[in-house]
Design brief:
alpha/beta; 6-stranded parallel beta sheet; glycosyltransferase; transferase; Glyco_trans_4-like_N
Length: 374
């Protein structure tokens, strides 16, 4: 089939979109991507995105907006994006059979178009919208109503963990598939980076903003010369991290990294973090990329109590689970270093669990099966 993925970020990078697109192309489907570039102002730019399987065509719509701003800060840009997506999908109706809409902010308009044009709709819920973003109270009931209506009428719905079934309780999807946000294992392996083996290396690559304890790790590492913090990604903390890296030799900032470089860096470091604010309802159900990456790479992980997948870390002793504060973070880092002799054993157990339960090979089978039944 011909498939158009619709995503409210520039897919530069977006590991889940890239993996799913790559898997569908490998299975013989024709795929293109329609994406929102919030950093530029332009009508439409067509280019190509390099994936493992080859190049995929990507159409970006340039509408300036902030990342992580929610509806309150981005209402006007979001409405412009909806309008542009609607017009693009109508004008290009002969290019696709299936709309693969990622999250409610693309599914709402995609669902309207799918009904008008009698196209198939796959609703891929990366994050349950009202629990994940800054939605004003007055809009919440309306969005939940619309969201559930889309879940009930879409040809297929994808969620990223079994726990997420609780979030969509009360709906009756025609077909529901769980596709964990696990990384695709790279058969060629990773290029080991030439990093100091005598220093404990903490790594985080992702959205650089509030709630991830990025500043807290920077301040901890600054005071402790036996540690390094290797950090990459993009977001509001970029300038702060550039400055911190200039001031301290043990803070290394890489900027935005392609996904294979992210995995290479993580595989060359010692400890990973997947820290989220537990007061955000969506974080209780989250299935963080970093959790799955840590499993695949066999790297001990620090998470927060009552955030998604923390029970797996606790049950298996794969790292430390902390209270959401700086003191608990620092204790956890030191405690993991005290367990250094266990790291090799922890690594083997994590890799085995990834292979047995979460491998992308299994997720790919689920995705292809879903499309074969549309």
């Amino acid at each position: 089939m011909r498939v158009i993925f619709v995503r409210s970020n520039p897919v530069d990078p977006d590991s889940r979109v890239e993996k799913e697109v790559n898997s569908l192309i490998k299975a013989g489907h024709e795929v293109e991507i329609l994406a929102w570039d919030r950093s530029g102002k332009y009508k439409h730019i067509e280019s190509h995105l390099k994936l493992d399987i080859g190049y995929v065509k990507i159409h970006r719509l340039g509408i300036p907006a902030t990342y992580g701003g929610g509806i309150r800060k981005n209402l006007l840009p979001l409405l412009k994006f909806q309008n542009r997506v609607f017009n693009w999908l109508l004008r290009n109706k002969h290019r696709y059979d299936v709309i693969h809409a990622c999250d409610f902010d693309t599914a709402f308009i995609s669902n309207i178009v799918a009904k008008i044009l009698k196209k198939k709709l796959v609703y891929d819920i990366f994050d349950y919208y009202v629990d994940a973003f800054g939605v004003p109270l007055k809009l919440k009931k309306y969005i939940v109503y619309q969201d559930h209506a889309i879940i009930n009428t879409a040809d297929a719905v994808i969620i990223c963990s079994d726990k997420r079934r609780e979030q969509i309780k009360g709906t009756s999807p025609k077909r529901l598939t769980v596709i964990h946000n696990t990384p695709a294992s790279m058969e060629a392996g990773f290029q080991a980076l030439n990093l100091n083996p005598n220093i404990t290396k903490i790594v985080y690559v992702g959205i650089l903003g509030d709630g991830r304890f990025i500043r807290e790790i920077v301040e901890f590492v600054k005071k402790n010369p036996l540690y390094e913090f290797h950090v990459g990604g993009f977001g509001e903390y970029e300038n702060y991290l550039e400055k911190a890296a200039l001031e301290s030799n043990n803070i290394i900032f890489y900027g935005k990294l392609p996904y294979h470089k992210t995995l290479e860096l993580e595989s060359s470091c010692d400890l990973m973090t997947a820290i989220y604010d537990p007061s955000v309802p969506n974080h209780y159900y989250s299935a963080p990329n970093k959790f799955y990456e840590a499993l695949m790479l066999g790297k001990p992980l620090i998470m927060v109590k009552n955030t998604g997948m923390d029970d797996t870390i606790i049950t298996n002793g794969f790292g430390e689970v902390i209270d959401y504060n700086r003191e608990s973070l620092e204790k956890a880092i030191k405690k993991l270093v005290e367990r250094k002799e266990e790291w090799s054993k922890i690594s083997s157990k994590m890799k085995n669990l990834y292979r047995d339960k979460y491998s992308w090979d299994e997720m790919e089978v689920r995705l292809i099966d879903l499309y074969s039944n549309l």
